Amino acid sequence: MDNLTYGKMCEAKATSYLKRKGYTILANNYKNKIGEIDIIAKYNDTIIFVEVKGRMSRAFGDPFEAINPIKQQKIRMVATMFLKSKGLLEAPCRFDAIAVLGDTDADIRHIENAF
Known about the structure:
Largest sheet: 5 strands, mixed
Number of helices: 2
CATH topology: Trna Endonuclease, Chain: A, domain 1
CATH class: Alpha Beta
Strand content: 25-35%
Order of helices and strands: HEEEHEE
CATH architecture: 3-Layer(aba) Sandwich
Structural class: alpha+beta
Shape: globular
């Protein structure tokens, strides 16, 4: 399986996982001129911006290690533009990370308030 296909599969697994947990999905692969956010969801009154990282194995490190400070800052900027465009700048929000390791649902880890 190529990286693009695997990445899409990981994002689909993460979306399904969040739905099972009671999250409402607002957008998948939201893009603007700055960049992209994999999943934007809502849980209760909180807007959650989710970065999904997948790895087939730990050979190249933990998936969470790929969400470095530069990536985090870019996600924050994209999120700010999303909130501004929807008139939601005052809404509570947080940034989560979901790691998918391998190709089974048992290998999903979710960190709330990851950054």
